[in-house]
TrEMBL record:
Residues 1118-1190 form the Nucleoporin POM152 ninth Ig-like domain. Residues 224-346 form the Nucleoporin POM152 first Ig-like domain. It comes from the Eukaryota. GO terms for cellular component: nuclear pore transmembrane ring. GO terms for biological process: nuclear pore organization; protein import into nucleus. This is Nucleoporin POM152. Residues 20-44 have a biased composition (Polar residues). Residues 791-878 form the Nucleoporin POM152 Ig-like domain.
Length: 1308
């Protein structure tokens, strides 16, 4: 069995192997001593006795300031404050306990006492809302400390208690109430017994009254002894002074009631194989009272070991390594105990260390070079772990032993060995085992090797996982080293304007894990000049990139790199060639730009560059005025190549000087001045040619016969001469015009009138200024479009169509015809029928597609003018007028007849009708069909509803409603036809005059039963003989005029048919209800009112469909009989009678000469038989028939006997006179068990023999070993003789009538 040993534990497996001393315990004691009391900063002040009176005076002053209003209402001298709190809490617990009891009653359907006798829920809620509120409200009045709360707290407490009260009283299920109710129902469920009292079925069937006593037979055990019963492993440290008491504590289990005098122990030395017998007397060992101090807890829980009078444990002290076994043990009676075969080997505890070769800082590719040294009994098992960068790897090596080593521990159990194994114990000695690790490291990070667990061949375990890491490293159980990544670097060339070579070189290192710890990085760089000379230099950096200027041309080469811990490798680009840059230069050549008329007008420049493009250069342009140079313009240019050309022409005449000032490129960003200055300076005199151009070349549009102007911009020296042409495109005619002596640079040319329509082009031919230089022009021309036609407007009507009729409020569209270019504007007059002008209007049209004038007024309309997009037009047939008139509106009138009378011009009346009878209003209509008639109906209650009808003829009928009583008024308020709709009347702004028609509706008679759906019950005898005992059937007269004629329908459920009859002259005073009972037989009869007629002649035939009925039930006399008349009833059984009739039933019966009466609400009378006796039924009565059946009369003697029954008592069995007897016998002896019965023979008995078995927690569990069943026992006593140990008890017994079972036994 494995057993783990931890550092600093009090067990023999301590910290010996790491050279621990008592300093560990000293440190622990020192820590403990620090917990003693130390004075605080305030307590360190010097105490003076003279300060006592001052303190006393302060306390007296404080006592005088006490607020007596805050003292408890009950003086603490009468009742202590703590007792007052206890009493208040006790009252609160009593209230809540009583509430819990009422909750149980409420949930189980039992009545709860309160204000109402019908609603238990209301009683519960009202009671505890008041009680809880009063308790919490008056509690602060007692001013009990810690129970006096603020008013808002009291209010919150009351609200919480109310919420709890409502919550637990609801019908919804929840776990707490459900669980509590179920638990209380299970243990406290009470039922009504035959004697009338409430009893618990669990107490009625209590098996303890029928099964008494048990007999236990024990066979005395044999005295035994066993060394190391739990087969634990033991080892001794090299330094035995580390043991808490200087020795190992090995247990011996003794099974004996006598004391032990002598223990003879055989000892064998592991190194000499010498044998020695050691006799230990009572003073050399001790009996322990608590076996847990010696035994492993797992063994205690598995074996269930408990200390009894016969089982004891002896502590055996051992101080030497070797082989141990018990030879013999003698008790105080000088008897030798039986010794179980058990061996114990005590060795030195296993030891492990780990060491490494090499420095703490290593590089990837190096070796770990570790050695693990083990000392212990082979074969050993080693568990160690390796952590790299926080990632854990666990390894397990087993069967670690020297080469060619043989040991019985490889196959034999570790607590039993053969004689050959014992003769040579060299296999139990301690041997060294070395494990070497030499693997390359491939991952950077912190490496941690740690020994976790070491187990030797005897299962002695050394667990190092719970030792602090610092202690592990100190004693060689843990070994750490750090692996660094290999630095990698390359060269990169960069542009640097500050360097003489315009280049800098960057040394770039790759990212590694421990960047900060591995700095500084270093690199060795060599430089080879163009002449072959070379030199080397080193750089150092703390970052991943390092820059340095390449001031000397030549080849730079990266020779080697490294970090603080590891050499590196060169990757990628390892050399860079740097050359000396050449500054840019510029060469400029110029040629003049000549004009045949005015001479030079500009310069062409040809530029040649040397250097690296692109190039940036600047030029200053100066103008020479009055012999002085003045800066005229500055130009900046960029050339992407080594050659570039550009031209410069000034916009005005004069003498100019162009100077190229500076030059730069990307390598030489600072501008370089161009010298000598004369080489880059160019002079010239320039003139400008005369020119002319139209200011606006947009197309011009003209009407036929119109005139326009053309604006011209002139360049040069005035006066100017301009020549231009006008070309007509359709006839190819060209006409030339001249304008002379123009003194301004801007001039407007007046064009002639255009009498012929078409497209014209005006172009400038030539221009001449004061210099006399005539210049031909090719500037853009101006297009001129002249209309060929004149726009016009006229009415576009059919022949002889000069008028139209429209609805008042609508629009009429008068079609017109337009000619020209859109958009158009038309002006027209509105005249009345007498020719007077009522108004002048204008309408705009965006096109000439189906144009029309929209008008809405009566009269004549005349066109007076128009124009299109840019020309005025003419009107065709200027005197023509178009007429517009309105259509006639629809109208109606009420048709008078014998049933319709006219009261006034707008008021009519209809004759009275009954409720539900249909009536109409007849109308005559005029207009254009179809018509829509709108009207309102005003009900007697004042509610107004609106409706409308559509009519295709010139006659209409409006239906009057008749659902309610009183006077209805129909208001006819609008009529629409095919021409005039509702929207048309709104637009026309006119309204109809309303017409009123009135009619009175008399009520429909309605009579119903006063108690709808009620069931009237009576016996069949009452129907035939006693009419006065019948229950009256009442009617309710809802509406109508008395007297009434009522027609009834009676449906007989038993026959499946209905009968009808009529009662005349029925009023609220006179209703012969007894006629409804006449000739009714057994069963249910549904009585329905089919028809009602009142004095007005109004009839209600639909009354039968309104659930207007009652039920007459003619019942037979109630009956009762036993559910199972052949069964035998025992105490605890349920006695059940079946009841026939209508519940509730009133039953009188007699049980054990006791007269009882009850009211049963179901169809069965069920009671539990709580005691033996005789039950007899005296009488029965149900709730409807009111007929009492008396079974005690001589004529009912036979029924009385059938309803009577006898309840038998349950049988009982007693073992050993009802006591639990324990009888000890020796093996081979016998004991007698006596069972005694009560009841009616023959008896049947079932009994068992049980023995205690070991449980999971070490406790004994009874286990059935044998079960016996004996039948046909006619005597009241039964004997059994046995020699087997165990507990004998009865579990089932039965007699001639009844059966009993030991529930206590089956529940356990």
């Amino acid at each position: 069995m494995d057993r783990e040993f931890f550092l600093n534990s009090t067990t023999p497996r301590g910290n010996h192997w790491i050279g621990a001393t008592s300093s560990y315990r000293t440190q622990h004691n020192g820590t403990t001593s620090q917990r003693r009391f130390q004075p605080s900063a305030n307590s360190s002040k010097e105490f003076k006795f003279g300060s006592l009176p001052e303190v006393k005076a302060k306390k007296t002053k404080q006592a005088s300031d006490i607020d007596y209003n805050s003292l408890p209402l009950i003086s603490p001298e009468v009742l202590d404050v703590s007792r007052q709190r206890f009493l208040a809490l006790l009252v609160f617990i009593i209230i809540q306990s009583y509430k819990a009891y009422d909750v149980y009653l409420l949930k189980t359907g039992l009545p709860v006492v309160g204000l109402l006798s019908t609603s238990s829920w209301f009683n519960f809620v009202s009671k505890y809302v008041v009680v809880d509120a009063m308790f919490l409200y008056f509690l602060p009045s007692f001013k009990i400390p810690k129970l006096t709360f603020q008013p808002w707290v009291v209010l919150l407490q009351i609200l919480c208690m109310w919420v709890i009260t409502f919550f637990i009283s609801t019908e919804h299920d929840f776990s707490l109430v459900t669980g509590t109710t179920t638990l209380l129902w299970k243990f406290n469920n009470k039922e009504v017994s035959l004697s009338g009292s409430s009893v618990s079925h669990r107490k009625v069937m209590d098996s303890s009254a029928h099964f008494k006593g048990a007999m236990t037979i024990k066979i005395l055990p044999e005295n035994t002894a066993m060394l190391n019963p739990s087969h634990e492993s033991y080892c001794l440290p090299q330094a035995t002074e580390l043991l808490p008491e200087g020795h190992l504590k090995v247990p011996i289990r003794i099974n004996s009631t006598s004391d032990i005098q002598l223990i003879q122990l055989e000892y064998r030395d592991l190194y000499t194989n010498g044998v020695e017998l050691r006799n230990l007397t009572a003073k050399d060992f001790k009996v322990v009272s608590d076996p847990a101090a010696l035994l492993n807890k797992d063994h205690l829980s598995m074996k269930g070991i408990v200390d009894t009078n016969s089982i004891k444990y002896v502590e055996l002290p051992l101080t030497e390594v070797g082989f141990y076994q018990i030879k013999r043990i003698i008790d105080s009676k000088n008897f030798s105990l039986k010794v179980y075969h058990s061996h114990l080997v005590v060795s030195h505890c296993p030891v492990a260390t780990i060491a490494g070769a090499g420095s703490f800082d290593r590089c990837i590719g190096d070796s770990d070079k570790l050695t693990i040294e083990l000392q212990g009994v082979p074969p050993m098992r080693l568990g160690y772990s390796k952590a790299v960068g926080g990632q854990q790897h666990t390894y397990l090596d087993s069967n670690l032993q020297p080469e060619y080593f043989e040991s019985p521990l490889q196959s034999t159990p570790r607590y039993i060995f053969s004689s050959g194994d014992i003769s040579d114990l060299s296999w139990a000695r301690t041997y060294p085992v070395t494990i070497s690790l030499d693997l390359p490291v491939t991952q950077e990070g912190l490496y941690n090797y740690r020994i976790d667990r070491l187990v030797d061949g005897l299962d002695n375990v050394m667990d190092f996982t719970k030792i602090p890491e610092s202690v592990q490293r100190e004693h060689g159980v843990s070994y750490n080293f750090k692996v660094h990544g290999i630095p990698r670097a390359s060269l990169e060339e960069r542009f640097d304007p500050n360097s003489s070579t315009k280049k800098s070189i960057s040394v770039n290192f790759e990212q590694i894990q421990d960047l900060g710890a591995a700095t500084p990085y270093w690199a060795k760089i060599s430089h080879v000049a163009a002449n072959g000379g070379s030199q080397s230099f080193n750089i150092s950096t703390d970052s991943l990139s390092h820059y340095f200027q390449a001031d000397l041309p030549g080849t730079y080469k990266l020779d080697s790199v490294g970090s603080l811990f590891c050499p590196g490798v060169v990757i990628g680009k390892s050399s860079v060639l740097v050359t000396k840059p050449i500054p840019p230069e510029l060469e400029v050549n110029s040629t003049p730009i000549l004009d045949q008329c005015v001479g030079q007008v500009g310069l062409n420049f040809d530029l040649t560059f040397t250097g690296v493009p692109p190039f940036y250069y600047r030029a200053f342009i100066y103008r020479i005025e009055n012999g002085k140079r003045k800066l005229y313009d500055t130009k900046k240019y960029t050339s992407q190549g080594t050659r570039n050309q550009f031209s410069y022409s000034p916009t005005s005449e004069g003498n100019y000087e162009i100077v190229f000032d500076e030059l730069s490129n990307q390598l030489f960003s600072e501008p370089i001045s161009l010298v000598p200055r004369e080489k880059y300076t160019f002079k010239t005199s320039m003139r400008v040619k005369p020119s002319a151009v139209f200011k606006n070349i947009n197309e011009k549009k003209l009407c036929l016969g119109d005139q326009t102007k053309a604006s011209v911009k002139l360049n040069g020296e005035s006066p100017f001469y301009v020549k231009y042409d006008i070309f007509e495109t359709s006839s190819n005619k060209r006409k030339t015009y001249e304008v002379k002596d123009i003194q301004s640079n801007h001039y407007d040319i007046n064009l002639p009138e255009f009498d012929v329509g078409g497209d014209y082009i005006m172009s400038l031919v030539s221009v001449k200024d004061s210099s006399g230089c005539l210049v031909g022009l090719s500037e853009p021309d101006v297009m001129i479009k002249v209309r060929r036609d004149v726009p016009s407007a006229s009415f576009n009507l059919l022949e002889n169509a000069d008028s139209i009729k429209i609805k008042q409020g609508s629009n009429a569209e008068i079609p017109i015809k337009l000619a020209g270019e859109a958009p158009f504007t038309v002006k027209f007059q509105h005249l009345n029928y007498e020719g007077e002008v009522l108004g002048v209007h204008e309408t705009r049209f965006n096109s000439n597609y189906k144009p029309s004038l929209k008008v809405s007024k009566e009269g004549s309309y005349k066109l007076v003018g128009m124009h299109d997009s840019y020309c005025n037009g003419k009107i065709g047939n200027e005197n023509f007028q178009f007429k517009v008139s309105f259509l006639d509106k629809p109208s109606f009138s009420v048709i008078e007849s014998a049933k319709t009378n006219k009261l006034s011009a707008i008021t009519f009346s209809k004759e009275q009708v009954c409720q539900g009878r249909e009536s109409t209003i007849d109308l005559s209509l005029s207009g254009s069909p179809p018509f829509i008639l709108k009207y309102d109906i005003i009900a007697p209650n004042g509610y107004t509803s609106s409706d409308s009808i559509q009519v295709a003829t010139k006659y209409a009928a409006v239906k009057l409603p008749n659902q309610e009583l009183g006077e209805y008024t129909a208001v006819i308020n609008a009529l629409f036809d095919a021409n005039y709709g509702e929207d048309d009347f709104v637009r026309a702004g006119s309204a109809y005059e309303e017409v009123f028609v009135k009619q009175t509706v008399n009520p429909t008679p309605y009579v119903s039963f006063a108690d709808l759906g009620k069931t009237y019950r009576t016996c069949s005898i009452n129907v035939q003989d006693d009419v006065l005992s019948l229950e009256p059937i009442k009617l309710k007269f809802v509406q109508g005029v008395a007297p009434f004629s009522l027609t009834f329908s009676i449906y007989h459920e038993s026959k499946g048919r209905s009968d009808q009859f009529t009662l005349e002259d029925v009023d609220p005073v006179n209703f012969p209800y007894h006629k409804l009972y006449e000739n009714l037989k057994l069963g249910n009869h549904v009585v329905t009112i089919e028809k009602v007629v009142d004095a007005n002649g109004c009839t209600n035939d639909l009354i039968a469909t309104q659930n207007n009925h009652v039920l007459i039930s003619i019942t037979d006399v109630p009956k009762i009989h036993l559910l199972d008349p052949t069964a035998e009833y025992c105490v605890g059984d349920y006695v059940a009678y079946q009841l026939n009739g209508v519940a509730p039933f009133s039953i009188k019966y007699e049980f054990n000469q006791k007269q009882l009466k009850l009211k049963e609400y179901t169809s069965q009378f069920v009671r539990i038989a709580s005691e033996p006796g005789v039950i007899s039924i005296a009488s029965i009565e149900d709730s409807i028939s009111q007929c009492v059946v008396n079974f005690t009369t001589p004529s009912m003697k036979k029924e009385f006997d059938k309803l009577s029954l006898l309840v038998h008592p349950l049988p009982s069995v007693t073992v050993s006179r009802g006591k639990n007897i324990i009888e000890d016998i020796h093996e081979g002896d016998q004991a007698e068990i006596i069972f005694t019965f009560d009841g009616n023979p023959p008896f049947s008995l079932t009994y068992v023999r049980t023995e205690e078995a070991e449980g999971s927690k070490g406790r004994g569990i009874p286990q059935v070993v044998e079960t016996h069943k004996v039948t046909d026992i006619y005597a009241y006593e039964y004997r059994v003789v046995t020699s087997l140990q165990g507990t004998y008890q009865a579990i089932e017994v039965s007699d001639a009538f009844c059966f009993a079972k030991n529930d206590a036994y089956f529940s356990n």
